[in-house]
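REVIEWER CHECKLIST
Item 1: Sequence provided? yes
Item 2: Single chain? yes
Item 3: Sequence as submitted:
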Amino acid sequence: MAIQRPDAGAVAEAGAELGLNLSPADAASFHGLMQGLFDAYEQVAAMAEPLPPVRYPRTPGRRPAPADNPYGAWATLSEIKGAKRGKLAGRTVAIKDNTAVAGVAMANGASVLAGYVPEIDATVVTRLLDAGATILGKAQCEYYCASGGSHTSWPHRVENPAVPGYNAGGSSSGSAALVAAGIVDMATGGDQGGSIRIPASFCGIVGMKPTHGLVPYTGIFQVEQTIDHTGPMTRTVADNALMLEVMAGPDGLDPRQKGAPAEPYTQALSRGVAGLTIGVVPEGFTRPGAEAAVNDAVHAAAERLGRAGARIVEMPIPMHAHGNAIWTPIFLEGATRLMMQDNAYGTNAKGVYLESQLDAHGRWRGRADELSETLKLGILMGHYMASRHNGRYYGKAQNLNRALTAAYDAALTRCDALLMPATAIAATPLPGPDATREQIVTSAFAMTANTAPFCATGHPSISVPVGPLADGRPVGAMLTGAHLSEMMLYRIAAALEAAYR
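Item 4: Structure as written out by the authors:
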């Protein structure tokens, strides 16, 4: 793209946008001084940039017909065969549509991005293909991933296969539905406030949000770098552990990563829980609107772990009651700045930048009325608070996040994992076509209180099915461990799963 060089008048206009009062002489002076800087930009514009190579052939894919998409869970169908051998040979995978798959449309659940086609595979896509997986397409997700429900996705909502007519959870709504329905074996999910664990809980599958930075985020649509996570969604704990073995580890490109390698997580599955201590967090059972039946199901799960040999103790963490509030300014102000104002890339970070995505996403400024009601609310609040208070509450929330992290860390020195409901409520009916904005928003954020805090602190956290309730709605018990304790979580999760066979 050619550099547009301004005249002196345009320099004066740009100065006014920054609060600079430039006289005509000032503008002319700066205009002259800027020419050498524009020369540098011209050099950058003319150079070829190194991008990750694409190694496996694929077709552009197609939008599924309604008959091929009974739950609205597919965004695009496109078969990509991976390596002939590997840990995932013979397994089918869906990729959340916030993740780049070269040559295949990526909408991120948004009308604004319709028609955008990335030119690279995200690191996790390459790793899954290298391990022998076959990708069957892109899974529908919520509009820019700004919902814990499954009713804000464009062009259609996602239905829960376990309880038709009900919310599948979000924002990895299509991923959960495809796995729960048995259409694919595995799917990738993303989690900034619970978007892996919420749909896993609502649909009755296993969803792991790994330690922050364990899995590379390269090629995935950024929301807020300090809370961005991606991870595996599967029907079984064993498949989940196997998928994380493939996905985890540094790629040398994602600035979130600290160099932690993948571990042989599947080796933990048969170790049992004898001698382990599980801390039941009472504050996780007293969230506003909590369903008694959900709480009872998770307490029953604790009892089953006790019968399997674990020591079950009550582990109060008073700060957990404030965790969702601490997460809120980080998510709202951080996402408004990075995802929206800075076109989901921003500056001050090394990594892979997709110019094509920057250009496609930048269209939102002229089409903001198309955004989902949840996203409109989020950016209104984020912009208002950041602009009126100089970002102080984002900063204060990050400071308080250290205290929240320390509270969980202290509890985890006295037990091997924390246990609470993934969601205080089970799946709710999908809002109707005449739902009010208030109903849409409530259905999108009523279930994040237990999941969101661990996105802020970065602790690994997994939802394991422990239902269903009498009315057929699934329930997820959430296990959370110390940073990089995925081996321990899979050990406990496998024992919990076995207790329900």
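Item 5: Key structural point noted by reviewer: DSSP finds 14 helices and eleven strands in the chain.
Item 6: Recommendation: ____
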